Amino acid sequence: MADPRDPRPLTGEPISLDLLNTRWAGTPVNDLLADPDGYRIWLSSVGLAERCPADQAGLAAVREARDALAELVEAADRGHDAAPDGLNRVLAHGRLRHRLGAAGPERTAEVDEPHRLAAWLAADNYLGLLDQGAHRIKACAHPNCILHFFDTSQNGRRRWCSMALCGNRAKAARHYEKAGR
């Protein structure tokens, strides 16, 4: 559940896309990760406040992960491939440890430095989304929106980050265009 202090228009996406969505439309572009306070809010919104230190090193690590994710997702939006080097650098700092526990299989993320956990989890999540279907990672269709979402609709035809925000804006614009003719 999103932290009530979180000012972003879209929260609750998988952690990799939620990290991408820490930048949203505005003049200049809004950036939740502009300072450590915003980083604390993001950690709280994605449920990592108790697991990850909200320090300058962690903030730098998630910015690096966000930049790597943005490069890959924006290239895919344009129908191009991007080099995975940036994401692979983030992933190189951690791994999943698998074991069989009393309640069944357990997976634990391990990172070489604690401040890298949030960044690594976001990068690992992106790989999981790719496994589910790269075509479901989408940019909002509204021309003024820069947010991304994971399309979980049955038919895969979701177009807007939020029907209440961008979808309604687009419908209203079409209505006024028709009415003005």
Question: pLDDT average, as an integer?
Answer: 92
**Which fold name corresponds to the CATH topology of the domain at 15-135?**
Jann2411-like fold
Number of E-type strands: 6
CATH architecture call of the domain at 15-135: Orthogonal Bundle
Alpha plus pi helix count: 6
Q: Over all CA atoms, what is the radius of gyration?
A: 18 Å
Counting copies of identical and different chains, the oligomeric state is: single chain
Distance between the termini: 44 Å
CATH superfamily of the domain at 15-135: Jann2411-like domain
Task: Give a quick account of the main beta sheet: strands, pairing sense, barrel closure.
Answer: 2 strands, antiparallel
Order of helices and strands: HEEHHHEEHEEH
Tell me the strand order in the biggest sheet.
Answer: 1-2
CATH top-level class of the domain at 15-135:
Mainly Alpha
Overall body shape: globular
Helix proportion range: 40-55%
Give an overview in words.
The protein has helices at about 15-20, 35-45, 55-75, 85-90, 115-135, 165-180; strands at about 25, 30, 95-100, 105-110, 135-140, 150. The chain has a domain at about 15-135: Orthogonal Bundle (Jann2411-like fold). The strands form three sheets. Strands 1-2 form a two-stranded antiparallel ribbon. The protein has six helices and six strands, in the order αββαααββαββα.
